[in-house]
Hints:
Layout: H1 2-11, H2 15-32, H3 35-60, H4 63-90, H5 93-102, H6 107-136, H7 143-148, H8 151-178, H9 197-225
Amino acid sequence: xxxxxxxxxxxxxxxxxxxxxxxxxxxxxxxxxxxxxxxxxxxxxxxxxxxxxxxxxxxxxxxxxxxxxxxxxxxxxxxxxxxxxxxxxxxxxxxxxxxxxxxxxxxxxxxxxxxxxxxxxxxxxxxxxxxxxxxxxxxxxxxxxxxxxxxxxxxxxxxxxxxxxxxxxxxxxxxxxxxxxxxxxxxxxxxxxxxxxxxxxxxxxxxxxxxxxxxxxxxxxxxxxx
Length: 226
């Protein structure tokens, strides 16, 4: 789904279709009950988008130009980020690692990708812990305060989060070494993952949606040129 959406975003040009894709991914998030968990990431992206448009509009003194210039880029970026978050928060890391292993990926790649996917919810939890610690210290961290004082964001959240990320990464490396982990060894699984009816139905529906979107984009482009 992520690869397909990335390719579709590169192919289509109409902002209406891009917005429709974004709404569809948000609907999947609501159906999967993860929208609340990813709201922090999406909120940061929306803040970045609004800031970029506002700065461009201020420099050029033309809001319409800023919207026309940034909207397609931001819509594509939002779709890819949302698809990645949907995958990360709905896919168990051990299932992902086992599926890569059964597709004959190298063990080093399987281990790295599995750890990366497992770490995304941990990173979200660390960001929430930092945010709560700032609130306990009496620091008001509303969206308006971030806009007025951007330094609050990178000094209060980004820098501590990077430091904590490096520390946890070092702990993971030490834990792997202490257990004698070697990436060149083959690993076995008790339960094998197989493609089921739901997987085939989802892939078929997704492929049909992609074909319809490409068809609509080509016809809308032809009509606009006419």
